[in-house]
Every structure is written in structure tokens, then in C-alpha cells.
Amino acid sequence: MSAKKITSIDTVKETYEREALKVAEVKIELSFWERLLDNNFVRKSLIIIALALLWQFYAVYLDNELMFPTFIATVKAFVTAIASGELLQKIATSLKVLFISYALGIVLASTLTILAITTRVGTDFLEVLTSMFNPLPAIALLPLALLWFGLGYPSIMFVIVHAVTWPIALNIYNGFMGVSNTLRMVGKNYELTGLKFVFKILIPAALANILTGLKVGWAFSWRTLIAAELVFGVSSGGGGLGWFIYEKKNQLDIDLVFSGLLTVIIIGILIENIIFKVIERRTVIKWGMKF
To answer: Are residues 110 and 233 in the same domain?
Structure first.
């Protein structure tokens, strides 16, 4: 084949590729409402607005502020409690106890899981402990916590650590066990053993399961904290959001009770959609491990 023919074929090929790229670059223009509804934040915001409207209409229909205050009355009580500083102080107290207990639970769960993945005895130990304690509600340990640690925050932290440890440990362990043999062989080829193998191979590969465990553990810790404060807050005469809710119930300030519950919901939404979502976007979604 002559050089002239080869050049001609190349030219035709380049022209075809350029036209194909032009076709691929064609964008479908969406309407304003389609673009708006395509936004994840907007869709979730619309759901929250719809729930708030349903709350308001039902409370107006019920017409009993003592049993079910309106959404507007709850928001006003919330703003008043924030402005007075009372609710902010309760939030700070609860979050301080929660983060310390949550961190302790993560450390304990990680230690148990690493032992389980590196030794046979550790595997048996983790399986026995999770089968014994994972079905045990944290609230059931409140009397023992009171007996062992007395009144105050050590008792609350004990039950929160119990609530956090087992779901996180199970998710980490399942994630480790689901790591492919190919990645395990890569670690062996690089002569990675012990903690180096865990941190460089297992944790990155199982990060999706680990994040799921962390989110489940966070939810368990949050609701266990509120329940524990309802008991220990009353006993010790202080506490965080749980004590705030209990105290306002006794004073028949039901709008403030609902504002306390609303605060729990808002904090949960913020943690879920800011901290965990950011971590997911920068790790498992960016790496193509989750869509």
C-alpha cells in the first residue's frame, strides 16, 4: 500500500473520530425544574419541608398544644432555648460525652477485630463476644452501670461503649473477610504481615463496610445517650439533651420537649450528611467502591 493511501485512510479515521466526539459532546438541555429536582440537597429539603407542613397541619387539626404542639411553636421554643444558652449548654454536654464514648467504642471494636483477623483465638473470641453481647440492649445494662460506676457520666459512657462496639466490630470483621484473595496475595507479595497488612491492604479494601459500621454505631450511640441521660440525668440533677427533655416534660413545657427532640434529629442529620458523606465522597465513592 502506498504512502498516499495510508495518509488518506488516516485522514478519514481522524475525521470520523472528530465527528464521533462531537456527537458524544451533545448535551440534553434540562428545564429549570428538572435541574432543580436533579439536585440531591433540593430533593431532601423538599421532603423535610413536606414533613414539617404535615406536622403543622396535624397539630392545628388536633388543637392540643399540651399533647402535640405545632411545628411553628416548636421552632419558636427552639430559638428561645438557643438564645438563652440553655439548649446550647445541654448540646455541648451531650456531644462531649458522646464523642469520647464513641471513640472508645471504635478503639475497642478495632482492637477486637484486628485480633480476630490475625489470630484464630481472636476470631473465636470475637464471635463468642458478639453472639453474647450484640443482642443485649444497652439499656438493660443501666442497673449494672449504676451499681459499678455510680451516678454520673462514667455510667453513661459505659452503656454507650457497649452500644457502639459490637455493630462496628461486626461490620469491620465482615469487611475484612470480604477482601478478595487477589488483594491478599498482593499484600503477601510485598511481604506485608501483621498490622502493616491490616492497615495497607485490609482497611482500604474494606472501607465501605467500615463506614457502614461507623454510621450504625453512631446511630446506636446517639439514641443510647439520650435514653441513658433520661435516667442518670434525673438521678444526678444534671446532664445533656436527655435531661433537658425529661425536665421540660415534668414542667409541662411540651413545646420545649419537642424542641429537644428536634435538636436530636437536626444533629443526626448534620453528622450524617456532612461528616459521613464527605468521608464517603473522598474515599469509597472516589475510588469507585460505592456509587
So the answer is: yes
* Range from 18-32, 119-133, 211-225, 227-241 carrying the lowest mean pLDDT: 18-32
CA torsion through residues 233, 238, 239, 240, sign:
positive
CATH code for the domain in which residue 173 is found: 1.10.3720.10
The pLDDT of 114-119, averaged and rounded, is 87
In a domain, 270, yes or no: yes
* Helix-helix angle 254-270:207-236, to 10 degrees: 160
Coarse DSSP helix, strand, coil percentages of the chain, rounded to the nearest 5 percent:
80, 0, 20
C-alpha cell, 281? 465522597
Question: 276: which DSSP letter?
Answer: I
Residue 278 inside a domain? The answer is yes
Let me know: does 185 contact 198? Beta carbons within 8 Å: no
